[in-house]
Amino acid sequence: MKIWQKKSLITWLLAPFSLLFWLISQILVALYHKKILKSYRSPVPVLVVGNISVGGNGKTPVVVWLVEQLQQRGVKVGVVSRGYGGKNKQFPQLVTPESDPELMGDEPVLIAQRTQAPVAISPNRQQSIELLLSQFELDLIITDDGLQHYALERDMEWVVIDGERRFGNGFVLPAGGLRELPSRLSSVQAVICNGKSAKEGEHLMQLEPEWAINLKTGEKRAITDFYHQSVIALAGIGYPPRFFTMLQDLGIHLEASHSFADHQPYSREIIEPLQKGDLPLLMTEKDAVKCRTFAQENWWYVPVSATFSEKSTACLVEMVLDMLEKRAVI
């Protein structure tokens, strides 16, 4: 939300509620740390990829990247997610590449499709972990989001921040977009900056597009084929302008751009009116998993992959491998 990016009269009017939100969250954290509230310790190590702010910071591409990096090194990884946006009411549930994103949520289905890793969803992460471990032999559990889910103990925490928006106006909810204050970053093992310039101690991540894939036919075209073309773009992610700016930076002309809410459910009736003649319609991969059943021939999605410098890649992967080795010794 734009009002979370700067201080205004609304910010100060909501400030008392933010103070209350912060006090309640601090009390809960203290209760978990003092073991007054019970937390779950997984029999295999847990790594949380989360954020301290609301909205799309790029957690899911980091999860996909990390799973793929670890799979290449022989690590058996499972992923748990809340399944936000899905209509499923029975938990926990296994998610497969063929799962219905309307039921299971778009991000868990995307992760399963991209990585082929075991994925489970439930608001209760313990349930998801126990389900995965009952059916798969795993070395590591990665939780997509859940940094503030203190009912789950974790061995390592990574936080992803938006390099453009950073921490907005610096207030926690509802006056600002923060779930926790930036001081929380001092206790995590890695801070990943999505785009722009990373600050000292942060790992810079870029989201790189290479292909456009047709939703209806599966045809794969280099994204460069769309240079200097006019297209229609849509995005139902946490921060749609990031997708539109990426396309424009590639030299693609946006005849129109349409922003939707994160985890937006789609239908033919919603999207077809957005089309203009035969212009290609470009969307994110997260949107595409919900549109394949009614896609038209000129609908394309643009998958992005997280990329890091060689130094950051080595640092991030090695810290996970070292953690797994130390946990195995205990």
Automatic annotation (TrEMBL):
Annotated InterPro entries: LpxK (IPR003758), P-loop_NTPase (IPR027417)
Catalysed reactions, semicolon-separated: a lipid A disaccharide + ATP = a lipid IVA + ADP + H(+)
Residue sites binding ATP per the record: 53-60
EC primary class: transferase
Biological processes annotated in GO: lipid A biosynthetic process; lipopolysaccharide core region biosynthetic process
Alphabetized GO MF terms: ATP binding; lipid-A 4'-kinase activity
Membrane-spanning ranges: 12-32
Keyword DNA damage recorded: no
Pathway note: Glycolipid biosynthesis; lipid IV(A) biosynthesis; lipid IV(A) from (3R)-3-hydroxytetradecanoyl-[acyl-carrier-protein] and UDP-N-acetyl-alpha-D-glucosamine: step 6/6
Keywords from the UniProt entry: ATP-binding, Kinase, Lipid A biosynthesis, Lipid biosynthesis, Lipid metabolism, Membrane, Nucleotide-binding, Transferase, Transmembrane, Transmembrane helix
CC terms in the record's Gene Ontology section: plasma membrane
Presence of keyword ATP-binding: yes
Domain of life: Bacteria
E.C. number: 2.7.1.130
Family: Belongs to the LpxK family.
Function noted in UniProt: Transfers the gamma-phosphate of ATP to the 4'-position of a tetraacyldisaccharide 1-phosphate intermediate (termed DS-1-P) to form tetraacyldisaccharide 1,4'-bis-phosphate (lipid IVA).
Designated name of the protein: Tetraacyldisaccharide 4'-kinase
